[in-house]
Design goal:
heterodimer; A: mainly alpha; two-stranded antiparallel sheet; two-stranded antiparallel ribbon; about 5% strand; B: alpha/beta; 3-stranded antiparallel beta sheet; 12 helices
Chain lengths: ~450, ~425
């Protein structure tokens, strides 16, 4: 742990949790320690102090405008929201924070619906998730139960005493707090929890309110605990019951490892087969503090070693655009991401986005190729252009693969990628430099190492 | 029970089996002088449509009369004051032997009803698996693998393994993002694509530099990386280049604007382009009707019905999207519907907001060729799940037909390729001639 980081490790770490390394990052962090890098990534100020991000006014205006979204212009507002968040991921000084907001957006997967949840509600959920992203998981879980977008999405808002809707209660246990591997809750727990959660609904101003007339006041038994006469605090009792089970901290730990460290596939989370999962779980079990648990993860030898993590499309796009100073809110980027299977604020279902090999298919290959085509076009355009921020950004000579690798945030390309690139360069030795640059950029973004870090 | 929402690329055999060669469709294979099965045009085809979310079987195949002492229609009316259909609203299943079933189809399924009357539709009742799981993901995995005790491979994937076609041939296609478990075998798998127009390179095909880029993209698969996901990525890149080349000349009608109809158009094109594709899997989503079920389900079933109509007749509404299916292909094509579960008997609210929560057993449809030549026996099969009595209604519909028996019936009698995993699950008697 005290060993200095190699350039390759810096590249892998920042690629997995910070939307990719730049050449400058490689220079800054190579030779420093893993603890120093972890501490740096985690040094995000408390929520109360974060309002001063440079794009805050853009966020505010996109959110305000979204409150007047309707069926005709809804898509425009969605693109504005996606564009704002992707740009924040690209330019933020706290990439780990945005990486964790993306993690929670995937974990508590909520999607747009007609007429609700609408873009305005999703942006509010986004801000709630940002507030708690590095905070306390128990508080985050409670905030999600009361979130207007979530209440609408999983029918909590319609659930009423006498006819409780089980949708949210089921997913709360299955997807948000406990998981099914192993399953430590029963159908009865779901039904009883659904009763306890009745009363919460959404008013005309898209705000969550508790209506006692809709609440089932009879006693419930959830996960062996009796819940009586707690009214609007019964959802906290359900949460506490879930988080008190042996499986919950391990399930959340598994998710954190699965999505941030390396793809370890489904496991029985109660077994101690994965030391990193056990360590992170122990940290969560203490106080449910997310920042603390992430510290354990980021400082671990297992994380440092890695083991193959397929990055999400948004992460790939942000990194590619970051490398060349290109804005991520272009329509071409949004359409490519759609083709790759990821639209922010619009997960495919309540289970969130895929993992691992599920991301790898001809469809995503072709959509990523399309993204690469946009990036290379913009990179070459701004290479000689004087009307872009900070002036022209000339591209390295095509044959200088070492510099190209650093531009993309790698100390060098893998032997396989280098073989492909050299093959392309020699097959096109007579082509002009821009044409050779075009091929290089397209092939690097389409390479296995771009997706799998 | 540990269930995988994804498959591991397991072991040397697994990794080696994936896209060793740039996959080709059979037609191109023939052109390249490879030995391809000359009976390819005569192979039977299977279309599997997954109704995603858990389709409410009771409002799809509706109990409209109490029969033989089973108070189904009465229980249905009692537990579904808002959601329930009156008998006269449904499309009666009224073939000669149907009186004893007392069932009617959802009013949103007129085309299917027409096929049923022609004897082309088998309705298999009460399909589920033991120890029912109410999670969308877990239950979908079980329906896709066809093995409640956890298999890593899909039942169609295993079919592909047993057929033992050459590594490069693409016999099964999944329409959508990614590749679903149902199409993953141990040594063979299908290929996923979103639609045919999107299966093109953004930089076109005419420029020599674009072609050079594509050729080099394929090279990522030539020398596999040691890390498994990277190896898969490289091979998929190679497969993609081959796929684009093979589909370059396919003629595809314009989008209909309806995702399911478009998927069925894609399926027709894949089958008709003589590419060797036998199985196409596609999904129709939205059936998780916890609320507002009436409007939502009717819309979805109407889209299914219209899509099926277009699949055979080529016509969607008033528009002739493509030519009617040839008799040769129609004689060899079967469609089956699956869903991860049905829904509970009782509605969970009242009025238009009424919906249902996750349930268990539900009916499956098998739609076969014109009845004269078809081995599929049209009509109602299996037993209706017990619904209790008006005084003591059941809360949920439980299994009367194990899904493994339906799969084995299709594998044995339609695809002529029984699955050894199902040796203890005999095909359903009377479902096929």
């Amino acid at each position: 742990m005290a060993e200095p980081l190699t350039a390759h490790e810096v590249s892998s770490i920042l690629g997995r949790v910070a939307f990719g390394a730049s050449a400058a990052d490689l220079d800054t962090w190579t030779g420093r320690t893993q603890v120093e890098l972890a501490d740096h990534l985690l040094s995000v100020p408390d929520p109360a102090m974060r309002g001063a991000q440079s794009d805050e006014s853009r966020r505010a205006s996109v959110t305000l405008a979204a409150t007047s979204a309707n069926e005709e212009n809804g898509r425009t507002h969605l693109h504005a929201a996606q564009g704002w968040w992707q740009e924040r991921m690209r330019i933020t000084g706290w990439p780990l924070l945005e990486r964790m907001v993306l993690f929670w957006h995937d974990h508590f997967a909520t999607g747009l619906g007609v007429p609700h949840p609408d873009v305005a509600m999703m942006l509010r959920q986004n801000e709630t998730q940002r507030t708690h992203a590095l905070g306390n998981f128990a508080e985050l879980a409670a905030a999600m139960t009361q979130d207007p977008a979530m209440l609408t999405w999983l029918d909590g808002a319609k659930s009423v005493a006498g006819k409780p809707n089980e949708n949210y209660a089921r997913e709360f246990f299955e997807l948000f707090t406990m998981g099914v591997s192993p399953q430590q809750y029963s159908e009865s727990d779901i039904r009883e929890a659904a009763r306890a959660l009745t009363g919460w609904t959404v008013n005309g101003q898209r705000a969550a309110v508790f209506d006692p007339r809709r609440h089932d006041t009879r006693s419930k038994t959830v996960l062996g605990r009796q819940i009586s006469d707690l009214g609007d605090a019964e959802h906290l009792a359900v949460r506490d019951a879930a988080l008190a089970t042996p499986v919950s901290s391990r399930f959340i730990a598994w998710k954190l490892v699965q999505k941030l460290a390396y793809d370890l596939g489904p496991i029985d989370v109660m077994s101690d087969s994965e030391p990193l999962v056990s360590k992170v779980a122990a940290s969560l079990r203490k106080d449910w503090n997310i920042r603390g648990a992430l510290g354990v993860l980021l400082r671990s030898p297992e994380f440092r070693r890695g083991g193959g993590l397929a990055r999400q499309p948004v992460e790939q796009a942000v990194h590619a655009c970051k490398a060349f100073g290109i804005a991520t809110d272009a329509a071409e980027v949004l359409q490519s991401l759609d083709g790759m299977g990821q639209r922010l604020f619009y997960p495919p279902n309540v289970g969130g986005w895929p993992v691992g090999e599920e991301w790898i298919s001809p469809g995503s290959t072709l959509a990523r190729y399309r993204l690469a085509t946009f990036v290379e076009h913009e990179a070459r355009r701004t290479a000689g252009a004087f009307d872009v921020p900070f002036g022209p950004r000339p591209l390295p000579p095509a044959a200088d693969l070492q510099t190209w690798a650093r531009l993309f945030g790698f100390p060098r390309f893998t032997p396989n990628t280098e073989r492909v690139l050299r093959g392309y360069l020699s097959a096109n030795a007579k082509a002009d430099e821009p044409q050779r640059h075009k091929g290089l950029i397209t092939l690097v973004i389409s390479s296995p190492e771009w997706t799998v870090m | 029970m540990v269930l995988s929402r994804r498959r591991f690329i397991g072991g040397a055999a697994g990794a080696a089996g994936l896209y060793l060669a740039s996959p080709v469709f059979a037609r191109a294979g023939r052109a390249m002088g490879m030995g391809v099965d000359p009976a390819l045009a005569n192979r039977r085809r299977l279309i599997v449509i997954h109704l995603g979310g858990g389709n409410d079987g009771l409002n799809t195949v509706v109990p409209i009369a109490d029969v033989a002492g089973a108070a189904r229609a009465s229980v249905y009316r009692k537990l579904r004051p808002s959601l329930g259909y009156a008998p006269e609203q449904t499309l009666r299943l009224d073939r000669p032997d149907d009186g004893g079933h007392g069932l009617g189809l959802s009013p949103s399924l007129p085309y299917l009803h027409g096929l049923y009357r022609e004897g082309r539709v088998a309705v298999v009742q009460g399909v589920d698996y033991p120890n029912h799981n109410y999670s969308h993901f877990s239950s979908t995995e079980i329906w896709h693998t066809g093995e409640p005790e956890h298999s890593a491979s899909g039942w169609i994937g295993r079919h592909l393994d047993r057929v033992g076609h050459s590594e490069g041939e693409v016999r099964a296609v999944g329409i959508g993002h990614g590749l679903p478990s149902i199409l993953r075998g141990d040594s063979r798998q299908g290929l996923g694509l979103v639609n045919i127009p999107a299966t093109r390179f953004a930089d076109g095909n005419s420029d020599i530099y674009a072609k050079s880029r594509h050729d080099h993209l394929a090279q990522f698969g030539a020398h596999p990386e040691t890390e498994l996901l990277r190896a898969l990525h490289g091979r998929t890149a190679a497969a993609t280049v081959g796929l684009v080349a093979n589909l370059a000349d396919a003629k595809v009608p314009e989008s209909t604007g309806k995702p399911l109809a478009d998927a069925l158009v894609t399926a027709r094109v894949l089958l008709e382009e003589d590419l060797g594709v036998e199985v196409v899997y596609l999904e129709h989503h939205g059936f998780d009707t916890h609320s507002n079920q009436r409007v939502a389900q009717e819309q979805l079933l109407a889209e299914l019905d219209a899509g099926l109509g277009m699949f055979w007749s080529g016509k969607l509404g008033t528009k002739q999207v493509m030519a009617p299916m040839s008799p040769h292909l129609a004689e060899r094509t079967m469609v089956m519907t699956i869903s991860e579960f049905g829904r509970r008997i009782g509605e969970n609210a009242s009025g238009a907001a009424a919906g249902t929560d996750h349930g268990a057993a539900s009916p499956m449809f098998l739609i076969g060729p014109p009845a004269a030549t078809s081995p599929l026996v049209g009509g109602v099969h299996g037993d209706h799940p017990d619904m209790g009595s008006v005084a003591l209604p059941a809360d949920n519909l439980t299994m009367t037909t194990d899904l493994r028996r339906v799969y084995e019936s299709v594998l044995t009698n339609w695809l002529h390729n029984p699955d050894p995993l199902y040796r203890r699950h005999a095909p359903l008697p009377g479902l096929f001639r």
